[in-house]
Amino acid sequence: MISLGIAFALSNILVDDAYLDMIEASDLKRIVSFLASDELKGRNTPSPGLDMAADFIAAEFKRFGVKPGNGDSYFQLAEWTRGKKADQKEMGATVRNVIGIIPGSDPILAKQYVVVSGHYDHLGEQKLTDINANADRIYNGANDDGSGTAGVVEIARALAGEKPKRTIILVTWFGEEKGLVGSTYYVNHPIFPLKDTIANINLEQIGRTDDLEGPRVNAGSLTGFNFSSIGTTFAAVGKKMGTEISGHPTSSASFFGRSDNVSFARFGIPAHTLCTAFEYPDYHKVSDHFEKLDYENMAKIVKVSAATLLEIANAAGKPTWNKDEPGAARYIAAAEKLAGG
Fold first, then answer.
1. Domain range holding 114?
2. Whole-prediction pTM value?
């Protein structure tokens, strides 16, 4: 890590790294340990535990001086209308995306937006049966996606005092585990114009290094790595900071449509999800506990994410889709439609 006060050159600009020292492993652990505590009972959408998580995230944004993202509110409200007949008690509940902003400083570029996000919901609890009556039934979701949510919150803390040229939007989504519902709701009811939204960096599963294929230490994987110029930017920033950001030979493409980034990509906005382990031993199990995360490594990933985010926010140009990548073709078509509409 580069010491306090020394500047390092990214691909286009010079960034002082003082803000990166605000991203701390201990604070990431504090956030994840609350979100993944039994008190929140797995943060199902909708549930009281999910509401507690939303209130916590909003309070953190406010404490750090991040401005509300929806007028004078940190919440985008939606009515929950999904579910089977057995879940009718959930119907009509209010669910919330949590949104904060760091306003842009450039008179022209401030009206363009860069989104960093993660989903704060998880799977709730196993249904009570005679077999599990005395067992752990709570899907705590520490890595999925308490880790990504903590990353967004910590980036808010680090960048709150910065003056990016473009406006940075910080969002945590409800309902990802139910089918990307919160991010889908946002792009269908955008608070900030989609045509002026230039990128989305989504953080998911950034705390575990015990990938089923082998340890992933001081390294991150980007979904759709070759789909847009964001992959190149991430890799360049990571290299300068001593952390490898790359694509996986198969999982980068196959996982591209499995997280909230794809909600933006479907509208033609370059968007990717960053993770450390695509698959790990406790994925979607009640054993996904906060004690199993590598917070020192997680802090490195969050620092690279914050620096990349700021690089995109300050760059002269916008991220672009890769026309030579077949997997990006549908998103290029969507971008052309968005620009023309």
1. 23-340
2. 0.94
